[in-house]
Amino acid sequence: MSDLMLINISGEDKPGLSVAISQLLADFSADILDIGQAVIHNHLSLGILTNVPDDSEKLQAQLLVEAEKLDMKLKLTPVAEAEYADWVALQGRPRFILTLLARKIKAVHIARVNTVIAACGLNIDAIIRLSGRVPLQSTKSHIKACVEYTLKGQAENSNAFRAELMQVCTDMDIDIAVQEDSIYRRNRRLIAFDMDSTLITTEVIDELAVLAGAGDEVSRVTELAMLGKLDFQDSLRQRVALLKGLPESSLKEVAARLPLTEGVEELFATLNKLGYKTAILSGGFSYFAAHLQNKLGINYAYANNLEIVDGILTGNVIEPIVDAAKKAELLRKLADLENISMQQTIAVGDGANDLAMLAAAGLGIAFHAKPVVKQNAEQSISTLGLDSILYLMGIRDREAHKLSTD
Length: 406
Known about the structure:
Blueprint: E1 3-12, H1 17-27, E2 31-40, E3 43-52, H2 56-70, E4 73-78, H3 81-89, E5 95-102, H4 107-119, E6 123-129, E7 145-152, H5 158-172, E8 175-180, E9 190-193, H6 204-212, H7 215-226, H8 232-241, H9 249-255, H10 264-274, E10 277-285, H11 286-296, E11 300-309, E12 312-318, H12 324-337, E13 345-349, H13 355-360, E14 363-367, H14 371-376, E15 379-381, H15 389-392, H16 397-405
Parallel strand pairs: 9-10, 9-13, 10-11, 13-14, 14-15
Antiparallel strand pairs: 1-3, 1-4, 2-3, 5-7, 5-8, 6-7, 11-12
Helix pairs in contact: 1-2, 4-5, 6-7, 7-8, 10-16
């Protein structure tokens, strides 16, 4: 008669351990029903759910001998057939990926997140670290840390689950993203970015306005537009009108000193090597979008065109204007052009005019965004640089680093 048995082995990792155990199971013609292994700081934990056709007691005795020889702890747990049948019946339950991002992950972060997960009726299947190893005395200017949870089940109240996680983020100055663990999550192909306050840390129109002597007035209107308190098209026309008379050379002057957001160059170096298609979909200006497109190796760039006559800005913007609806339309157009599903797209932005694009994408990310955007976007990053988007795609630091050095 066959026996179901759960084998747990733990201790200091050493060469030949998994070979010895697996070969012993092979000698007894055991079936492997489930298996998992993790190594943390050179300490191994190996679990194997097995079905042994016969001589189960003899196998157990030999496992004990082998574990003692290897100086490992061994725990053998019999599993009832009914218990195994219940486990099989759980197959197909929804699975989710929860990504926790911070400058430094503390035990209190994990404790709060785990409490929310348990309270909402979800089970933790696995937790792995995506960020690199950081020395205790790090010299890095921008430290980042990330762990990824695999969750199983359905939250008893999904709205409450999201609200609780958002509260944890607010209380602890961390970011948490939750995605369905679907095939699309592992096969994103197109990533579209807003430009101003996303790829760069400034609003270009505000920089131009300073040169035109209208800095305060334009900055005030820009802020209201990004908060969603003004119609974007009307506010853009109003602000561009204040640039009338500015020489075209001012565009080159501002472009030369555009401040890139933390992690931008690392992000695009990785995306380009992995073959992702990238796009700028901006309510800003095409001159600067083209500048960044060339600098970062971006595939597509769409933005607004300033009217220039005889080397002077006229104060007009050429129609049609790239606003919120146009950004979403362009994202769909690019997905069609690349022959991919919208579920394979990612959109990243910070302002109210990005909300339609974020909602249309398979993964919409509010990046260091205005409150109205954070409240309405499915995912939000406010603590780390733009390269932390790679974590939401399941890409580890060591993988990104290897690409950059190849």
